[in-house]
Design goal:
The protein is α/β, with parallel strands linked by helices. 29% of the residues lie in helices and 11% in strands. It has 2 domains: 7-142, Oxidized Rhodanese, domain 1 (3-Layer(aba) Sandwich); 145-262, Oxidized Rhodanese, domain 1. It is globular, with a radius of gyration of 18 Å.
């Protein structure tokens, strides 16, 4: 199966909406909003809600960790998604959903450029309430090369391989506290910082490929090398993986535990500054 384009436009979606499976990946940090309520209040017609905190490894103490292939397959099948479907995701966790599908062996997945906000700003139709999907069969197969755990990241850093941290610069540098309590401030020694917010225009659409490539190079990231992306809890790291896929690097792995794990471990080295 050839990979779908990493991002698709609202015009493209309007023309192909009946040929894709839409996923609303609205998500908020704890205490900042109710994703389910936001979905019910308005979403693109036929979109189902993908809750990354529910379709997750419930045995892990870390938030929204990747579930087992069997659990992922059962959950997305219940959302009406089958192995032949082209999935289009939107919302803050849209890139996370994109990465999850790819990590589970499904390349026919894209992210909607500009998301629901752009769709609504263009005067396109939205609907409220629940969309009732017809369950499908989805068989998932993990691609371990797209997922990193703590030990793998520590080994890669020791070997000089790149780790790209998507958190804001002040958190990366240790000048601002982490939003989750109990975590150290700073970053893993040797990590590079590319704040995920810099990848977007003011309206929430993605910057051009040329602008993205320039920012990546300015951050010291070598596009000739495979990299691992990290962030606070494995959500915005997927925006880095998506940006690199747009530039032809489909092999970016994501450190699933990210800073929520690294910043809590006594045996994880941390530094501050740039």
């Amino acid at each position: 199966m050839s990979p779908a384009p990493p991002i698709v436009s609202t015009d493209w979606l309007a023309a192909h909406k009946d040929a894709v499976k839409l996923v609303d990946a609205t998500w908020f940090m704890p205490g900042q909003g109710d994703a389910r309520a936001a979905y019910l209040a308005g979403h693109i017609p036929s979109a189902v809600h993908f809750d990354i905190d529910e379709i997750a490894d419930k045995d892990s103490v870390l938030p929204h960790m990747l579930p087992s292939p069997a659990a992922f397959g059962a959950a997305v099948g219940a959302l009406g998604i089958g192995n032949e479907d082209h999935v289009v995701a939107y919302g803050l966790a849209g890139p996370r959903v994109w990465w999850m599908f790819r990590a589970m062996g499904h390349d026919k997945v894209s992210v909607l450029d500009g998301g629901l906000a752009k769709w609504k700003a263009e005067g396109r139709v939205v609907e409220t309430g629940e969309w009732a999907p017809h369950p499908q069969r989805f068989t998932a197969e993990l691609r371990p090369e797209l997922v990193r755990d703590f030990e793998a990241v520590r080994a890669e850093l020791a070997a000089g391989r790149p780790l790209i941290d998507a958190r804001p610069a002040d958190r990366f540098q240790g000048e601002a506290p982490e939003p989750r309590p109990g975590l150290k401030s700073g970053h893993a020694p040797g990590a590079l910082n590319l704040p995920s917010t810099t990848l977007f225009n003011a309206d929430g659409s993605f910057r051009s490929d040329a602008e993205t490539e320039a920012m990546i190079e300015a951050a010291g990231i070598d596009l000739s090398q495979a990299a691992t992306a990290s962030c606070g809890s494995g959500v915005t790291a997927c925006m880095i993986a998506l940006a690199l896929a747009r530039l032809g690097r489909w092999d970016t792995a994501v450190y699933d535990g990210s800073w929520t794990e690294w910043g809590a471990r006594a045996d994880a080295p941390v530094t501050t500054g740039t």
